[in-house]
Amino acid sequence: MKKYIIEPGQKGIDALQVREMTPRQLKPGEVCVRVQAVALNFRDLITVNRGVKQELIPLSDGAGEVEEVGSEVTDLKAGDRVVGIFFPLWQSGDIDAAKFSTARGGTPTDGMLAQYVYGPANSFLKFPAHLSDAEASTLPCAGLTAWNALIVQGELKSGETVLIMGTGGVALFALQLAKNIGARAILLSSTDQKLEKARQMGADELINYTTTPNWESAVLQKTSQIGADLILELGGGGTLARSLESAKINGRISLVGVLTGFDGQVNPLPILRKSLSVKGIYVGSGDMQKQFHAALEQNRIHPVIDRTFNFGQVKEAYEYLQSGRHFGKIVIQLD
């Protein structure tokens, strides 16, 4: 039994180290899950590059099979295929400080990059049967974030226009969901090759932000100077000002990422002048995860996986994420 940890006091990908695991006794309400696959998110790169103060198993997202259940567990049984919930304590309702503090894969809550994980039964959820373990491993963070940002908080409707940034995991989940409900999708990416792949997935309008740095003007041109109903804002400080200009009057912005970093100044005047609604989206609750799974199952949606690595290639997987060359999700197979 092995696990990866982030070595305390070190920063960067080389802080990832393999360690032996010691099996432990289950508590009555716990389950043991044999992890089959895990998926990387930008948050995982931030965590390893910032370093940790105590030993931590990284990665929020993973899928596997229930190996054993505690004496009081009734909702799960050995053999069930499950994913780990991102916020183990956020089952329903609004998030608060206590629920926020237990995000999986961040201090102090160990993540999924281990051959076996333990935890309360209600911190795991069965996933749709049409998905492989690799596909299911992408659901808890990227998938649920897209669902919350577009459907729950974003309230995207058929016929509306959504602007989607990039071609990573959250963005491509958002594209699939938008097209499934009949929305019009404008997609930004850095290369024509990625844009062509997005077009094949159903993107209605494409903008290369490398060759069109003032892309907010292109968004307005493609919407008859009205702007987009909803913006899936993944860039953060470096792109938010352009997103404000791209939104229509009374439009919505779901702020879900900080891919351009944490710095940047934003003029709040467009928010006031255009009566914009800007909502911070940090994944979602267990109830939202269940709703998301139901939608995937009903519509037979499959996540987009760019590349799969094995358990011995974890550092290479992180390096590939850091390169930004991926289209969709990066997965590590443990079995």
List the topology elements.
Blueprint: E1 2-6, E2 16-20, E3 30-39, H1 42-50, E4 61-69, E5 81-84, H2 97-100, E6 116-120, E7 124-126, H3 133-136, H4 139-152, E8 161-165, H5 169-181, E9 184-189, H6 192-200, E10 205-208, H7 215-222, E11 228-233, H8 240-246, E12 247-255, H9 269-273, E13 277-280, H10 286-299, E14 305-310, H11 314-323, E15 329-333
Parallel strand pairs: 8-9, 8-11, 9-10, 11-12, 12-13, 14-15
Antiparallel strand pairs: 1-2, 3-4, 3-6, 3-15, 4-5, 5-7
Helix pairs in contact: 4-5, 4-10, 7-8
Low-confidence runs: none
Radius of gyration: 20 Å
In the CATH classification, which architecture of the largest domain applies?
Answer: Alpha-Beta Complex
Q: How many distinct domains?
A: 2
Mind summarizing the main beta sheet? Answer: 7 strands, mixed
**What name goes with the CATH superfamily of the largest domain?**
Medium-chain alcohol dehydrogenases, catalytic domain
User: What fraction, in percent, of the residue positions are helical?
Assistant: 25-40%
The span between the termini is 12 Å
> Which CATH class of the largest domain is shown?
Alpha Beta
Task: Could you tell me the CATH topology label of the largest domain.
Answer: Quinone Oxidoreductase, Chain A, domain 1
Task: Give a quick summary of the entry.
The chain is α/β, with parallel strands linked by helices and 335 residues long.
